[in-house]
């Protein structure tokens, strides 16, 4: 991937309460001898990580540990602190990041990545290949073969070439077809619209525990009522070799799964300090 004006945003502010007492954020949990962060970043296709013009990680719980970690990365990350991580769900972390982009007048596309997602390279390869192009202003990576549990972030789509997304959420979808795995691409127009939707959550107690996907759901409904073409499309994962780590069971499963995947050398992510 050649250098672009794109920004990578990693949301890593949460404490991961379902994992039990922890001293580090989920992004730094050990997975078979290496941190989740190292596993995640090194699993991006070759050349992708250094190709971003800007790399941002939004922190909250144990922020200082992530600040120390990114100092040793071969590719720099800017750390943004979400001071309200105890009060709000992850929509506020995304708001912090997008507000920063807006204040800096950055107009490039954004790749959004959840910090608790671990995956084999082939899962996300379709998002970064030479033949990839955004089908809408917001494109989400969807596993259409996933077993949809109660906790799955479900997606419903129209059966058209763009796979236009008609709904997203954990509940309330009539005919969900797949699961949002936690990686998105957004054009400048897309993330600016999402930023506007997230700002509307401020000052509304009923929105405090929303997911950032709730902002997307609001935009989908807004476009539907206005009779506009949907701005959200779905790109299918090539296989289901990924896991979102929410609890100790997920952590144990991730440790077993990564043993069967191929990983680049750690120097792909971490700077050579020798």
Description:
By secondary structure, the chain is α/β, with parallel strands linked by helices. The protein has one domain: Spore Coat Polysaccharide Biosynthesis Protein SpsA, Chain A. The chain has 8 helices and 13 strands. The strands form 3 sheets. Strands 1, 4, 5, 6, 8, 9, 10, 11 and 12 form a 9-stranded mixed β-sheet that branches. Strands 2-3 form a two-stranded antiparallel ribbon. A two-stranded antiparallel sheet has the order 7-13. Strand 2 and strand 3 form a beta hairpin.
Which features characterize this protein?
single chain, 274 residues, alpha/beta, Spore Coat Polysaccharide Biosynthesis Protein SpsA, Chain A, two-stranded antiparallel sheet
What is the element layout, followed by pairings?
Blueprint: E1 7-12, E2 30-31, E3 34-35, H1 36-42, H2 48-51, E4 54-59, H3 63-70, E5 78-81, H4 91-103, E6 110-114, E7 117-119, H5 121-124, E8 138-143, E9 154-157, E10 165-169, E11 178-186, H6 188-199, H7 213-226, E12 232-236, E13 242-244, H8 248-258
Parallel strand pairs: 1-4, 1-6, 4-5, 8-12
Antiparallel strand pairs: 2-3, 6-11, 7-13, 8-11, 9-10, 9-11
Helix pairs in contact: 4-6, 6-7
């Amino acid at each position: 991937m050649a250098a672009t004006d794109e920004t990578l945003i990693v949301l890593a502010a949460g404490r991961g309460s379902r994992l039990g007492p922890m001293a580090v954020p989920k992004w730094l949990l050990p997975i078979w001898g290496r941190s989740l962060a190292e596993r995640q970043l090194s699993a991006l296709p070759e050349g992708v990580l250094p190709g971003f013009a800007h790399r941002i990680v939004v922190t909250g719980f144990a922020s200082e540990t992530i600040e120390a970690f990114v100092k040793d990365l071969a590719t720099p990350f800017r750390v943004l602190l979400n001071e309200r991580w105890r009060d709000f769900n992850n929509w506020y972390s995304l708001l912090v990041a997008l507000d920063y982009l807006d204040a800096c007048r950055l107009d490039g596309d954004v790749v959004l990545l959840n910090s608790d997602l671990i995956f084999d390279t082939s899962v996300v390869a379709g998002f970064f290949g030479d033949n990839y192009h955004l089908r809408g202003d917001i494109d989400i990576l969807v596993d259409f073969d996933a077993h949809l549990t109660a906790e799955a972030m479900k997606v419903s789509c129209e059966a058209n070439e763009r796979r236009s997304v008609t709904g997203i959420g954990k509940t309330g979808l009539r005919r969900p077809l797949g699961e949002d795995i936690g990686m998105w691409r957004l054009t400048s127009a897309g993330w600016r619209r999402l930023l506007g939707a997230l700002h509307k959550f401020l000052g509304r107690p009923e929105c405090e525990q929303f997911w950032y996907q709730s902002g997307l759901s609001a935009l989908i409904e807004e476009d539907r009522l206005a009779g506009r073409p949907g701005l959200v499309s779905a790109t299918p994962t090539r296989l289901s070799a990924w896991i979102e780590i929410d609890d100790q069971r997920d952590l144990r499963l991730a440790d077993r799964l990564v043993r069967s995947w191929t990983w680049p050398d750690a120097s792909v992510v971490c700077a050579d300090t020798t």
